[in-house]
Amino acid sequence: MTDFNKYKNISIKNDTYSKIDRIRKVIVPDDPNVSRAQVVTILVNKEVKKLNGIHVNKKIKVHGSSSKRSRLYISNYEI
């Protein structure tokens, strides 16, 4: 059974899902059977290394909506 304290779900577009499938066959040369979740983890960890120590303090507008409720505010968040 899934440990809900350890895992979360995300929704992605079908196009992104297809891209993950293509990437997973080449991202780890020794293991062509890397899972989609592992691909996302690898890519996120690479991005975090690039952004190491950068402070994010900006307002992000959620795609497709202009209401105040649909805005995500990030302030003083250290990656």
Question: Which parts are unreliable, with pLDDT below 50 for 5 consecutive residues or more?
Answer: 70-79
Choose one word for the global shape.
Answer: globular
Structural class: alpha+beta
Question: Helix and strand succession?
Answer: HHEE
Detailed description of the structure:
- By secondary structure, this protein is of the alpha+beta class.
- It is built from two helices and two strands.
- It has helices at residues 14-24, 36-50, and strands spanning 55-61, 71-78.
- A two-stranded antiparallel sheet has the order 1-2.
- α1 (14-24) crosses α2.
- The longest helix has 15 residues, at 36-50.
- The protein is globular, with a radius of gyration of 16 Å.
Brief summary of the model shown:
The protein has 79 residues and is of the alpha+beta class.
